[in-house]
């Protein structure tokens, strides 16, 4: 499984709200040129929750073809409907995705057995790796430790993006990590901390703006230079906090626009940042010379 920084890429839009594929291609090339180790498309940062299935498919296919095996491409295929997750997963596998990210079934709030069966249904049907996605702040539920213990043994379930921000939970599930089941930090302010628990890297919002630097936080740790990793983690902490001062991906798209990446706006119910929050974000970026 992949080690390093995997960018949870935004989806750029035109002014009329349609997907800006030209800009998407520029972002993909820029990420790869700046040491990103993998691309996650159609995640939370990609706003797929406000896109149609047809748009999701078009973005996934474009990304896979544009990247063209330069780095691994992971496609978000999750749903709170198991059948929908299954159909999307098979479709993206056939497009050429290297792996899939499957979120826990939000709103339904399945019990442990339902959670296990949800993920296993998809894992039994595909031949590419699946990464579980635990983000209770978004879904209203979490993948409990017993479910992780069981799912970690499935040959097609090869990792978990842990984005609860709960270091105690992360410590408990770290017991199930192995060569066949890895963990990625889902929180940019905890990359070094999570790697101390055995994480293999990060699936990152920060990497949208600082791909090389986020890669270096992870690589320094992997190379045994924990001090350098921690110094970089702390250097960018104020900017990381600003990227989450409002719900993701509102601040990160604003940050990219401040960097003249021209990724456009949002789809409702997401909208522009509060003016005071935007000032805080811009100040944090100016401190780093980003705008």
What distinguishing features does this structure have?
291 residues; alpha/beta; TIM Barrel; 8 strands; globular; diaminopimelate biosynthesis; lysine biosynthesis; lyase
Helix/strand layout:
Layout: E1 4-8, H1 21-33, E2 38-41, H2 53-67, E3 73-76, H3 82-95, E4 99-103, H4 112-123, E5 130-134, H5 136-139, H6 145-151, E6 157-162, H7 167-173, E7 182-185, H8 191-196, E8 201-204, H9 211-222, H10 226-235, H11 237-243, H12 250-258, H13 275-287
Parallel strand pairs: 1-2, 1-8, 2-3, 3-4, 4-5, 5-6, 6-7, 7-8
InterPro entries: Aldolase_TIM, DapA, DapA-like, Schiff_base-form_aldolases_AS
Keywords: Amino-acid biosynthesis, Cytoplasm, Diaminopimelate biosynthesis, Lyase, Lysine biosynthesis, Schiff base
GO molecular function, one term: 4-hydroxy-tetrahydrodipicolinate synthase activity
């Amino acid at each position: 499984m992949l080690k390093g920084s995997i960018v949870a890429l935004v989806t750029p839009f035109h002014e009329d709200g349609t997907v800006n594929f030209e800009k998407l291609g520029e972002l993909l090339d820029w990420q790869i040129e700046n040491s990103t180790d993998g691309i996650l498309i159609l995640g939370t940062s990609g706003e797929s929750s406000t896109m149609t299935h047809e748009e999701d498919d078009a973005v996934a296919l474009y990304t896979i073809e544009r990247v063209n095996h330069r780095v691994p491409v992971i496609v978000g295929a999750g749903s709170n409907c198991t059948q929908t997750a299954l159909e999307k997963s098979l479709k993206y596998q056939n497009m050429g995705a290297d792996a899939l990210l499957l979120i826990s079934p939000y709103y339904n709030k399945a019990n442990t057995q339902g959670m296990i069966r949800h993920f296993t249904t998809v894992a039994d049907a595909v031949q590419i790796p699946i990464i579980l996605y635990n983000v209770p702040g978004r879904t209203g539920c979490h993948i409990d430790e017993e479910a992780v213990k069981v799912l970690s043994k499935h040959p097609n379930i090869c990792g978990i993006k842990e984005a609860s921000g709960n270091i105690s939970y992360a410590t408990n599930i770290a017991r199930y990590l192995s060569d066949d089941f890895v963990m990625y930090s889902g929180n940019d302010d905890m990359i070094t901390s999570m790697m101390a628990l055995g994480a293999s890297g990060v699936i990152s919002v920060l990497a949208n703006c600082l791909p090389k630097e986020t890669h270096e936080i992870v690589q320094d740790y992997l190379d045994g230079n924990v001090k350098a990793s921690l110094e970089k983690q702390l250097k960018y902490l104020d900017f990381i906090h600003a990227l989450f001062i409002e719900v993701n991906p509102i601040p990160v798209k604003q940050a990219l626009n401040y960097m003249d990446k021209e990724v456009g706006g949002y789809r409702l119910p997401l909208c522009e940042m509060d003016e005071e929050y935007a000032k805080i974000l811009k100040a944090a970026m100016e401190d780093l010379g980003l705008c």
